[in-house]
Amino acid sequence: MAVTEVYLRGQQAKLPGQLRIRSQMFKKVRGNTIMAALPLIVTALVLLAPLLAPHSPYTVAGPAFTPPGHGGFLLGSDSVGRDELSRVLYGMRASWLSALAVIASGLVVGVTIGTVAAVAGGWVDSLLMRFTDLFLSLPGPVLAIAVVAALGPSLLHTLIGVAIVWWPFYARIVRGEIRSLSARPHLEAAKMSGIGVMRRTLRHLLPGTFPALVVTASLDIGNLVLTLAGLSFLGLGSPAPSPELGAMSARNLTFLLQDYWTAVMPGIGILILALVGNISGDGLRGLMKDR
Amino acid sequence: MQFSTKQSSVVTRDDWNSVTERATTSSSVAKVEDYHVTFTRSGSPVHALRGVNLEVGESEIVALVGESGSGKSVLGLSMLGLLEKTSNTSVTGKVFLQDRDIALASAAEIRRLRREYLGAIFQDPMTSLNPTMRIGKQLGEVTGSKSESVELLQSVGIPEPERRMSAFPFELSGGLRQRVMIAMALAGRPKLIVADEPTTALDVTVQAQILDLIKMSRERFGTSFVLITHDLGVAAMVADRVVVMYGGEVVESGTTKDVLNSAKHPYTRALLASRVTLSGDRHRRIATMSGEAVDSRISVPGCAFEPRCPAAMEICNSTKPHLCQVEDLHDVSCLRYGSQVDDLRLSNGIDSTQMQIRSFTDGGELREGAAVQEIDSSASDAVGKREIMITANDVMVTFKVGSGGSRAMLRALRGASLQVGTGEAVAVVGESGSGKSTLLRAIAGLNTPSSGQIELRAGSKVQMVFQDSGASLTPWMTVEQLLDERLVATGVRDKHERQERILAASDSVGLYRQMLSAKAYQLSGGQRQRAALARSVVVPPEILLCDEPTSALDVSLAAVVLNLISNLRKSLGMTLIFVTHDLAVARVVADRIAVMYLGQFVEVGSTDQVLSDPTHPYTKALLSAVPDSGSTPILLNGDPASPLSVPSGCSFHPRCPSVVGSCSSTEQYLTISPASRGHLVACGVALGGQ
């Protein structure tokens, strides 16, 4: 009987693991999932850059200033005849991986300091947070310039300069989240279960900071790509021949009016990466909210 | 209990029509007709109301009683014209206010109705009062003049109304805030006030005051009230009529006396049976309802209560009952009543074997042990005979609150002493701010006493059950992980043994095994409490501390959890300290009751001593304020004093009805009552007067 069937189905829906996801909700979740998964796709693409790029980014492959779509150059060629597409792909690879590296280092340092401060409390907390404030007050780009000026121009030095000012954000987020989680009864319940402070922190507190961290970190990818591109535009990055988006735009700025693609294509590369970061942040936020 | 199929009053279709006629002819303040509300949540329909008829007469107090999910609040909002008409909500049926169908009324007209005709009181006055506005200004928006505001504040019993006019909501206590809310609701001299759980967030003594105020307002202004509550006892104290709701339908309605004394609908009966009251055999397990509350996502072809109904018949899951008059002014929506069964029998040719009644047992709860045995008589004897398990000696706990200039000392415990024997169950009873939870947490080791000692018998393990069981489960861990962790922490290395013990524990608390892989948010309220209990007993502790484990639960669920805790205590031989604000709950769980006020015990004795011979004036007031206790509540002055500024002498003296001159200067200590052994009372006046 149809009516009974509906009824029984409804009853079953109460059991966990059998929660039926309705079509509408599913669509929303699916949209958010795709948005959130974009960085994985981009990471895969940039890692495959050596296979995808039709030419080497360093060698001359044809005449200079070939317009896009001519002579086998999809995005044209640059002022010395190197393939623009290959250079942009390698440049995106460098930008993207650099951004991820800075975020990873920021997360490691920030989460550690934030967690220790929140769990220890008292003077340890005060000390660590003032230390964090100190770094928070440093102006990022200026510090990067100083580091590069002191150690010589290289991508690694730029990254160090940026990474030094990046972790305090994560430390603050983690500390705040843990402190609010600590007030929840589940932590006292864990204490009553006889669980030590190490495991309490790792299993009962830290996972609670993930939603906020993941969303912030993914929104930061876009931020970092722009920051790094800006620094590289100013000449703080890998030296000349290496393909770097900011530097490519800067160097080809003089050709903007005649051979626009040499300056615009790297810019579009930056745009795509920054956009992916922001979109994925929004998608993740949507996913976390549904939870 | 035998379920009788009384068919004395045969009601026909014509009578049903006359019921509706009755509704239209009498003067009604509000009327709801065949009202359906369906929300769309995450793409699926949620049936909040499924065809409700209701009528509120002039200066009548109607109580809408139901558990969570019964649709009572949605109905209340609809009567206020506050139900948001969005694309996600579909509404059919009519709500009449002042004989005006509000569905047809313009926005301006609804505003006028709300202004002149309606008032609202919500559960939490902190969120419904504007925190940024002074009381006087907020009230002035409705009254228009300052003198009228002051008068209103006076009439709702707010002391020093002139001074309160310039106070902000956060400066008032919960009881005073609710009084301000009532004053605001009364300001426009409305014909109808909808009060949604107005006393749920308040202490019992304050609840008694507020309910009294509602009754008084009706008498003074002729206002009708729709009182939404989950507590039949609250309904019994003030309502003229009780309307019981289940699964978005009215299942029974009638005069308060009829519904409470001769309930007809199996749900109402079960609800009444599962109430914890001050009468009846306290050693028997409380009757419980099987199953879980109806899922409003499901469209049920038959009676919504059928899956849980002990008196269900075969036809119940396919035929929808409708509200029928069974006695004068007493309507029931059950196929067993009125003509409905007869009609069906004739039309469907159902024979009597299909009408067989499932026996109405007292709580055939899933996989719980047999009925609890009588507590052995030694339980109520003095502690002396047993080995002492817990000794709290003059325990003081003081918290520093605020910072800088507003730094203050919160004296949560001011010298509390208590001894608990092995295997004994002691209920610590008190209102909010009494320090009862602080004592429990101090015993659990979660608070450190600033002075005094707490000693537990050597080697005894302590576990605690929290009030909000959902929040006590780590949200991202499964029940199984939480139980496993507890076993690992106590040194159970063998994975296989852990698995066995997890299954045994979940069986012992009646948690379905497949729920072990669920996380807290996937569980219902009852399942969460079971999961929390399973974690507490997976390694059986010697001492189980319970911090109001039932106060956030529906009546029927609370009964299940109380039974469960009693069972576990018996089977595991645990010593129990049970913190509650409800003396009726204390009565069923405890051998001894310890009453606390402002961080000190004011009366300690066996359950019988305290309840049948309450000696301290505070205990007396507390006992009389229990809804449905049969006695007129002793109304105390004001709210419980704040532990931030403890009154001098006997801390209860500003509210005490039998205060004498010396009370404000003489501290009171627990003294053995001359009348009975083991009964301690901290009141010289009460003891001297005996």
Summarize the structure in words.
The complex is a heterodimer of chains A (291) and B (690). Chain A has 291 residues and is an all-alpha fold. Chain A contains 12 helices and no strands. Chain A is elongated. Residues 1-23 of chain A have low confidence and may be disordered. In chain B, 31% of the residues lie in helices and 22% in strands. Chain B contains 23 helices and 23 strands. Chain B has 4 domains: 13-27 and 56-81 and 115-260, P-loop containing nucleotide triphosphate hydrolases (Rossmann fold, 3-Layer(aba) Sandwich); 262-354, no CATH class; 377-461 and 541-681, 3-Layer(aba) Sandwich (Rossmann fold), CATH 3.40.50.300; 472-539, no CATH class. Chain B is of the alpha/beta class. Chain B has an 8-stranded mixed β-sheet, with helices on both faces. An 8-stranded mixed β-sheet of chain B has the order 17-18-19-15-20-21-23-22, with helices on both faces. The radius of gyration of chain B is 27 Å and the shape is globular. The A-B interface holds A 3-4, 6-7, 10-11, 13-17, 19, 22-25, 184-186, 188-196, 199, 203-204, 207-208 and B 42-44, 292, 295, 297-301, 307, 317-318, 444, 446, 462-464, 466-468, 471-477, 482, 485-486, 489-490, 514-515, 517-519, 522-524, 532, 535.
